[in-house]
């Protein structure tokens, strides 16, 4: 089993930056692709970014490309999401996800590929 705990969310103004963290514990040696998803009120969960085990392959949703950066520290068992130039439409609960089987990162947009999920952290962007 793997446990994921997100942190770093908060209330910011449009144009500000935030960095989310997701700390993994447990059988972290079994974790391959890790990703961030988000869910806005009244909307379905959507993919934001995914990163391979060695950090060499990364995929972003078009809505965050150029503004968000996903990174990973396997020593600390932590994945990060740096969010710059935040917009009001980025307001959502952000969830960390991890997969215990390897797959190509460009396929990482489907939530069904992930086995473990965190509890989420709220990001609110005001105008």
Task: Explain this structure.
By secondary structure, the chain is an all-beta fold. Helices cover 0% and strands 48% of the residues. The chain has no helices and eleven strands. The strands form two sheets. Strands 2, 4, 5, 6, 9, 10 and 11 form a seven-stranded mixed β-sheet that branches. It has a four-stranded antiparallel β-sheet with strand order 1-3-8-7, with no helix packed on it. It starts with a strand and ends with a strand. The mean pLDDT is 96.
Question: Short description, anyone?
Answer:
With 127 residues, this protein is mainly beta. The protein has strands spanning 2-7, 10-13, 18-26, 34-39, 46-51, 58-60, 68-73, 78-83, 92-98, 116-117, 121-126.
Key terms:
single chain, 4-stranded antiparallel sheet, mainly beta, 11 strands, about 130 residues, about 50% strand
Q: What best-fitting shape do the alpha-carbon axes yield?
A: globular
String of helices and strands: EEEEEEEEEEE
Are there runs of 5+ residues with pLDDT below 50, and where?
Answer: none
Number of strands: 11
**Contiguous helical run count:** 0
Ends distance: 40 Å
Would you tell me the structural class of the helices and strands?
mainly beta
């Amino acid at each position: 089993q793997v446990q994921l705990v997100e942190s770093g969310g908060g209330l910011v103004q449009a144009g500000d930056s935030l960095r989310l963290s997701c700390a993994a514990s447990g059988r972290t040696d079994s974790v391959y692709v890790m990703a961030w998803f988000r869910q806005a009120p009244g909307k379905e969960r959507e993919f934001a970014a995914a990163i391979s085990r060695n950090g060499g392959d990364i995929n972003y949703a078009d809505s965050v490309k150029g503004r968000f950066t996903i990174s990973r520290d396997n020593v600390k068992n932590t994945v990060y999401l740096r969010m710059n130039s935040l917009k009001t439409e980025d307001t959502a609960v952000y969830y960390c996800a991890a997969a215990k089987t390897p797959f190509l990162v460009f396929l990482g947009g489907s939530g069904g590929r992930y086995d473990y999920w965190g509890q989420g952290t709220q990001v609110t962007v005001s105008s």
